[in-house]
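Title: Comparing notes on inverse folding

I've been comparing how different people in this forum approach sequence design from structure. To keep things fair, I'm posting one structure and asking everyone to reply with a full sequence. Here's the target:
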């Protein structure tokens, strides 16, 4: 005999999945809007570029002059992860802003 009190509620699970999907889309859209706002000004793009540069995204992890190369590389790779995450979000959510930011930095370097 089947006990109906323990019957799985598929409709409730589907509603939970839909709610979670809606919340995820909302968070992603909010994140995109935030990033677009920051990258909408030259100052914002310059600041974000400096964060990525300081994280070490654009340079090698290896430092042969470090006292302990393995520990130094592990620390440097950990720091780079934040820069990689920021870079990935920019490239996924607003890639045109990354290109603009890159072009601005090239112009700045050419003037120097």
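Reply #1:
Here's my take.
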């Amino acid at each position: 005999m089947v006990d109906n009190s323990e019957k799985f509620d598929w409709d409730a699970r589907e509603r939970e999945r839909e709610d979670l999907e809606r919340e995820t889309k909302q968070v992603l859209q909010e994140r995109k809007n935030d990033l677009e706002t920051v990258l909408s000004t030259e100052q914002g793009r310059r600041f974000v570029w400096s964060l990525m540069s300081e994280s070490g995204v654009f340079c090698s992890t290896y430092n042969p002059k470090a006292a302990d190369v393995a520990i130094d590389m592990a620390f440097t790779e950990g720091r780079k992860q934040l820069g990689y995450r920021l870079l990935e979000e920019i490239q996924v959510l607003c890639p045109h802003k990354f290109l603009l930011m890159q072009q601005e930095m090239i112009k700045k370097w050419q003037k120097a």
